[in-house]
Amino acid sequence: MTIVEDIFPPQHVAIIMDGNNRFAKKRDLPKGEGHRQGKLVLDPVVEHCRKVGVRALTVFAFSSENWNRPQAEVDLLMWLLEQAILEQIPRMIEFEIALRFIGDQTRLPPHLKTLVSDTERKTAHFNKMTLTIAVGYGGQWDIADSARKIAQDAIDGKILVKDINAELFSQYVCLGDLPPVDLLIRTGGDYRISNFLLWQLAYAELYFSKVLWPEFSIEELNNAFKVFAERERRFGKTSEQIQQDKIEN
Questions:
Q1: Residue ranges of the chain whose pLDDT lies below 50
Q2: pTM value surpassing 0.85
Q3: Which of 85, 93, 180, 219 has its Cα between 20 and 30 A from that of 133?
């Protein structure tokens, strides 16, 4: 296994866990088995991210568009989510990781909404790492919801319209209290971000892997970290300015 402890890791990693259904079809497995296998991959990824110093890991489990999938698949995904949460609670306590959820939860089953809320409360005080699971989430929903909250705060006199800018807006979107996303990993071979963290990915490095999520390994994760470490992040500056900043700091 490739070791990356000597590489400065991204502080915030986001993952689109794609390819579960294709994994099952490729192996003639029953429908839903790809999702079951994919659920098993997350644990070692979380542990490795914590080990190398990643401060926040955000994974795309269920998009707002996924509600349009066949009801049997939606029901299975909700059940798998419930099982994953129940399994993760003792792990979060062991590794001192805060577990959070983002997305529109209005369509979640009542018992699942309660479980989500209780889990966030039980792990909120941990600070070794934050694991965020996006459920019923869409980047456009996130931005629209944030705009609605800003508008309401302006109406209520909590903020002034003239003070609304990108910095203020960033405080309203999901994950606004976490470091900006440094690295987005998408598995499965597709080259798109699928309405995930549209605001938060503004300056993220993108890594597209052909590996299907149930086959995603720590070696492939380390490769993504290596590629990230080799990229020059300029944030609008020139390469010369970046080099000068490194010298001065």
A1: 1-4
A2: yes
A3: 219
